[in-house]
């Protein structure tokens, strides 16, 4: 930090010893008692200027006569000094005490230093989207050749996006000297709860193997330290040594360290391992960082931290995070993963308290022409101008295409001028990826959601089914813009969406998919930015019509007196529309998680604890303990639960012992699973996902025949007739997967019903990217034609920007709530580090609600009805309200009466009698 040369540095050698006052000595004694709670990193400069920054000046740490201190020099302005970012180590509402030991000196011998100079401690408070603020904590007057104590307190009423502490003040040319700086939140009552500071230090002992392999052990294998391997070709990337694992006979064998007592619950930790592989002629393999946890009640947990593909050519970094929800009696971190016989090499391992990411600022988006097509010459009135063939196919113009926009584009754009009737014809295709293309680099804006819409048709003479796909080449990455399966010579709609969230060099859009030799036509091709907030306004109006009911309150009292004219104030306490979340066994050990869940959700589903591979990972060894604990928690809090899932049709999710069964033994095992699970929990799960993802897998059907699927439903219904039995699948709502179009889903449901399966509900998982309301709404409408209730069963949205994620979430919540066929929404989690997709959480790992979480709460609050007015001459009061529980306050001249009532779903006006 700072310059390493120049006249001022030479002068440091001539500093005379600075004298201490008795007051300074007293401070030294006091500071030692609170050092453990100091939020300042490297407060005594024992690690040089690590964690510190100089503010447009120079800094160096010197040691003279057993005194180490920082010297901040080459100061051209009074505000220049030494600073440290303390954002992640400070909380609003707490009183912090600052104590620093400071001095001053003249930078040049000929510069006259006045008898005193002020040193000031200041906070810089940065807020996204608003002006930076400055808070002066304290100042002290310092004389040359004396150390002085700088002492003060401060409280932040709210948490800024960034908090920087810095020392400033003396005139230009005067050096600031700092021996130590301590900031604590200790009070006269002791340390404030929640104020203990987690030092930003590696909790791994001997992380670079300087002390051999002390503190390390092999997990089912042998470990050793090396300075080189492979005839000197493998050397450490950092330091002098690395460790190897040998004699690995299982994938889970590896190197480990017991970190019990060094990790705290409810704190997020980051893990960075520098790794590679060696031996057995394997050039690449996955390495996993895993945490093994044993709880005080002897429960075992395995927490996946990170996975990355390592090679035998170079070192790479494996990075991830973890958090312990509950107390642990033992915690071990280890590396595993490569095939047996392959050595894991570890150069270093760092586990420390994870830095908190600053909140996302709203994306800077300007001059967006919502609804305007960015495709050049879309109507082909200028021939193929603006288009080019991808590959050596040929492009021509044809006529006879539809004159109207595809339905989902019309839903978004509203009335629109007729199309030209011209289309582009791609012929002489020798590869599936060949087709018409355009460059759209300069037309795409970051973080804007684009809708894709087009008519497509196969050329004459084609047979069989073919996928047609709108694809984007974003630099070297492929992005799906929508696809449709075509198996005849009619025009078909293709719809989809995309969003780009990283800086890019070039973007090409192209249409591809049919088999080589098959020509196809494209017409009415549209890519346009979507104004999602405009649709929100429409949906709000529709929601009031669809979800609210006319309610009449009939009042009566004991003396039958007239109540006309008395004022009533109606407040809805809870909307009864189901909004639930996925939870796991470890989550309920975290009081903060439980508090948020119970406050904002009224249904639940278990993430893994009811799945067959969890309850019977080894044949005959059952684990219902986790599911029992979760069910008891939900029952205690009156939370209805979905049962997910009895079977999972995708082969990769089936445990090995089940895969290895013969046909007859598999049939027996399936029946045992049904009878064991359904009898144990009869009447306790409101729903069951009977055979998960049957559009994407066929494990049981391939081995046991087509009849196994309806039979699973029949047996489940016989064992527990109280539970509604669901199909459940993904990508049904977004148009990006031809295997799970609404049409195919409906065909599957009807086929099950024709074979006697009592299908009672449709599960739409809802793992979606860049959702567009008209597409989601259209697909929900199609499913609604079955007459079956629809639930979003595993909803999550993903964006690196919290504000965009909030918009995505609002799209899905509003489209679900406005659709009369949708009867519930279940999120696939909400807490960071406990979700299947990154950048999808509503609450950060240590409990802070982010922008997406705030939007979720705001939308839910909007779905509460309130009214006020006066009782009429018939002792009645009328209003429109959502289903749910209410409180009504009747205000008289001398008294106030409060009653509660419930509005239930009804096909007509709801009448509620209230007796006072």
How is this structure best described in words?
The structure is a single chain. The chain is of the alpha+beta class and 916 residues long. Helices cover 17% and strands 36% of the residues. It is built from 15 helices and 48 strands. The strands form ten sheets. Strands 35-36-37-38-39-40-42-43 form an eight-stranded parallel barrel, surrounded by five helices. A five-stranded antiparallel beta sheet has the order 1-4-9-6-7, with no helix packed on it. It has a five-stranded antiparallel beta sheet with strand order 2-3-10-5-8, with helices on one face. Strand 46 and strand 47 (896-903) form a beta hairpin. Helix 13 (773-784) runs parallel beside helix 14 and helix 14 (802-818) runs parallel beside helix 15 (851-862). It is globular and about 90 Å long. It starts with 6 loop residues before the first helix and ends with a strand. The relative contact order is 0.08. One of its GO terms (biological process) is xylan catabolic process. Keywords: Carbohydrate metabolism, Hydrolase, Polysaccharide degradation, Repeat, Xylan degradation. Belongs to the glycosyl hydrolase 10 (cellulase F) family. This is GH10 domain-containing protein. Residues 564-859 form the GH10 domain.
Keywords:
916 residues, 17% helix, disordered N terminus, GH10 domain-containing protein, hydrolase
Brief characterization of the structure:
This protein is of the alpha+beta class and 916 residues long. It is built from 15 helices and 48 strands.
């Amino acid at each position: 930090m700072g310059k390493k040369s120049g006249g001022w540095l030479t002068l440091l050698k001539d500093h005379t010893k600075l004298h201490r006052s008795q007051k300074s000595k007293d401070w030294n004694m006091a500071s030692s008692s609170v050092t453990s709670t100091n939020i300042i990193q490297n407060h005594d400069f024992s690690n040089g200027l690590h964690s510190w920054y100089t503010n447009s000046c120079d800094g160096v740490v010197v040691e003279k006569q057993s005194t180490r201190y920082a010297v901040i020099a080459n100061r051209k302005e009074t505000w220049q000094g030494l600073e440290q970012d303390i954002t992640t180590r400070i909380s609003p509402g707490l009183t912090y005490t600052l104590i620093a030991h400071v001095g001053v000196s003249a930078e040049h011998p000929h510069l006259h230093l006045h008898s005193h100079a002020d040193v000031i401690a200041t906070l810089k408070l940065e807020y996204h989207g608003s002006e930076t603020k400055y808070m002066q904590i304290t100042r002290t007057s310092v004389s040359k050749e004396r150390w002085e104590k700088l002492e003060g307190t401060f409280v932040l009423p709210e948490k800024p996006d960034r908090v920087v502490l810095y020392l400033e003040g003396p005139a230009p040319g005067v050096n600031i000297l700092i021996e130590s700086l301590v900031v604590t939140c200790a009070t006269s009552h002791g340390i404030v709860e929640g104020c203990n500071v987690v030092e930003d230090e590696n909790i791994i002992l001997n992380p670079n193997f300087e002390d051999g392999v002390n503190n390390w052990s092999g997990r089912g294998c042998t470990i050793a330290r090396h300075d080189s391997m492979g005839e000197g070709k493998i050397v450490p990337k950092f330091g002098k040594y690395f460790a190897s694992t040998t004699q690995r006979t299982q994938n889970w064998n590896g190197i480990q360290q017991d970190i019990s007592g060094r990790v705290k619950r409810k704190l997020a930790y980051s893990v960075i391992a520098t790794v590679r592989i060696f031996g057995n002629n394997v050039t690449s393999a996955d390495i996993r960082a895993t945490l093994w946890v044993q709880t005080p009640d002897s429960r075992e947990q395995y927490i996946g931290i990170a996975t990355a593909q390592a090679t035998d050519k170079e070192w790479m970094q494996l990075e991830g995070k973890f958090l312990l929800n509950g107390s642990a009696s033992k915690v071990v971190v280890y590396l595993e993963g490569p095939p047996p016989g392959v050595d894991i090499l570890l150069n270093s391992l760092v586990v420390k308290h994870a830095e908190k990411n600053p909140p996302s600022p709203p994306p800077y988006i300007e001059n967006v022409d919502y609804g305007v097509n960015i495709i050049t010459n879309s109507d082909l009135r200028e021939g193929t101008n603006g288009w080019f063939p991808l590959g050596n196919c040929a492009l021509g113009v044809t006529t006879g295409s539809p004159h109207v926009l595809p339905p989902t584009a019309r839903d978004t754009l509203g009335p629109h001028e007729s199309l030209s009737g011209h289309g582009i014809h791609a012929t002489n295709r020798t590869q599936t990826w060949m087709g018409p293309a355009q460059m759209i680099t300069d037309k795409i804006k970051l973080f804007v959601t684009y809708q894709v819409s087009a008519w497509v048709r196969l050329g004459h003479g084609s047979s069989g089914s073919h996928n047609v796909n709108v694809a984007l080449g974003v630099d070297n990455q492929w992005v799906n813009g929508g696809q449709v399966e075509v198996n005849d010579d009619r025009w078909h709609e293709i719809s989809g969406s995309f969003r780009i969230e990283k800086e890019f060099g070039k973007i090409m859009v192209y249409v591809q998919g049919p088999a080589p030799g098959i020509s196809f036509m494209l017409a009415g091709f549209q890519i346009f930015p979507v104004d999602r907030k405009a649709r929100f306004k429409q949906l709000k109006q529709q929601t009031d019509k669809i979800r609210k009911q006319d309610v009449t309150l009939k009042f009566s009292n004991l003396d039958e007196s007239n109540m006309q004219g008395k004022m009533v104030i109606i407040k809805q306490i809870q909307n009864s529309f189901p909004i639930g979340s996925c939870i796991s066994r470890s989550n309920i050990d975290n009081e903060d998680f439980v508090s948020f869940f119970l406050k904002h959700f009224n249904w639940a589903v278990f993430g893994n604890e009811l799945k067959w591979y969890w309850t019977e990972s080894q044949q005959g060894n059952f684990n219902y303990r986790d599911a029992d604990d979760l069910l008891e928690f939900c029952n205690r809090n009156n939370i209805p639960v979905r049962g997910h899932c009895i079977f999972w049709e995708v082969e990769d999710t089936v445990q090995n012992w089940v895969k290895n069964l013969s046909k007859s033994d598999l049939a027996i095992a399936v029946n045992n699973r049904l009878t064991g699970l359904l009898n144990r929990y009869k009447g306790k799960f409101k729903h069951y996902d009977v055979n998960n993802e049957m559009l994407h897998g066929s494990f049981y059907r391939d081995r046991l025949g087509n009849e196994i699927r309806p039979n699973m439903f029949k047996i489940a219904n016989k064992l527990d007739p109280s539970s509604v039995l669901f199909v459940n699948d993904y990508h049904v709502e977004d148009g990006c997967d031809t295997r799970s179009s609404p049409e195919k889903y409906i065909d599957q449901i009807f086929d099950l019903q024709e074979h006697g399966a009592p299908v009672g509900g449709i599960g739409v998982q809802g793992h979606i990217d860049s959702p567009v309301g008209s597409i989601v709404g259209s697909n929900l409408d199609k499913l609604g034609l079955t007459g079956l209730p629809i639930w979003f069963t595993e909803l999550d949205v993903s964006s690196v920007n919290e504000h965009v994620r909030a918009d995505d979430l609002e799209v899905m919540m509003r489209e679900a709530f406005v659709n009369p066929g949708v009867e519930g929404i279940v999120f696939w989690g909400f807490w960071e580090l406990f979700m299947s997709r990154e950048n999808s959480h509503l609450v950060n790992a240590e409990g802070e609600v982010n922008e997406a979480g705030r939007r979720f709460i705001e939308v839910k609050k909007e779905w509460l009805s309130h009214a006020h007015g006066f009782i009429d001459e018939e002792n009645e009061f009328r209003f429109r309200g959502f289903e749910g529980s209410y409180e009504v306050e009747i205000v008289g001249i001398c008294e106030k009466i409060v009653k509660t009532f419930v509005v239930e779903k009804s096909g007509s006006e709801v009448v509620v009698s209230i007796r006072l």
